[in-house]
Amino acid sequence: MAKAEKKISSAFIYFFGSFGGILFGYDIGVMTGALPFLQADWHLENAASLVGWITSAVMFGAIFGGALAGQLSDKFGRRKMILMSAIVFVVFSVLSGVSPDMGEASAYYLIIVRMLLGLAVGAASALVPAYMSEMAPAKARGRLSGLNQTMIVSGMLLSYVVDFLLKDLPGEWAWRLMLGLAAVPALILFLGVLRLPEHHENHRGQILWFGNGLRFYHRRNILLLGG
């Protein structure tokens, strides 16, 4: 396992470690272009409250996703939780894109789906900075924190580009593809994170018991506890 991890370059680790920011940024920005087509397709021009809930549902779900992700990642690990977040993102992005046309009930369906999608968005926003801080050497943490922010705004820019490229499609296809294509970067994240280590080799410690004493090895430092 250690040999496999050593073959992975630091650039690969940092790129995919921060790639979750793309998902966060994409879903923030994509509704800007999708909403006018969605309103026209489902005749929601005079349903301001429903439109407001559709727009804000992701952020509402993100509140709970961010709160839960930290606790769960302490138990299961950052990498595993990022993988789970990517899977949730793929599933509910696709479900957003294939929302059934059932009149007003469609809006409630999409609100629920996007709230669940928000769990993954919130989880990614919490897990990515934590993972990056653990993976980065102390001298590079400032630069790599900036990389996460760069990924977020890049995701927003990507969503605007996708919205622009799809704007000439028939209304129903336009908004569905805008929302559904969010699954693509999530799938890329999943495949990339599969190769990432749970911890950086240089940041991993070992805890060993020797009789009634505890020794904690971290890099070259040894901490002895007990008698």
UniProtKB/TrEMBL annotation:
It is a multi-pass membrane protein. It is found in: Cell membrane. InterPro entries: MFS_dom (IPR020846), MFS_sugar_transport-like (IPR005828), MFS_trans_sf (IPR036259), Myo-inositol_Transporter (IPR050814), Sugar/inositol_transpt (IPR003663), Sugar_transporter_CS (IPR005829). This is Sugar transporter. PROSITE patterns: MFS (PS50850), SUGAR_TRANSPORT_1 (PS00216), SUGAR_TRANSPORT_2 (PS00217). GO terms for cellular component: plasma membrane. Pfam families: Sugar_tr. Residues 13-227 form the Major facilitator superfamily (MFS) profile domain. Gene3D superfamilies: MFS general substrate transporter like domains (1.20.1250.20). The keyword Aminoacyl-tRNA synthetase does not apply. GO terms for molecular function: transmembrane transporter activity. Belongs to the major facilitator superfamily. Sugar transporter (TC 2.A.1.1) family. The chain crosses the membrane at residues 12-38, 50-69, 81-100, 106-132, 144-162, 174-194. Keywords: Membrane, Sugar transport, Transmembrane, Transmembrane helix, Transport. The keyword Nuclease does not apply.
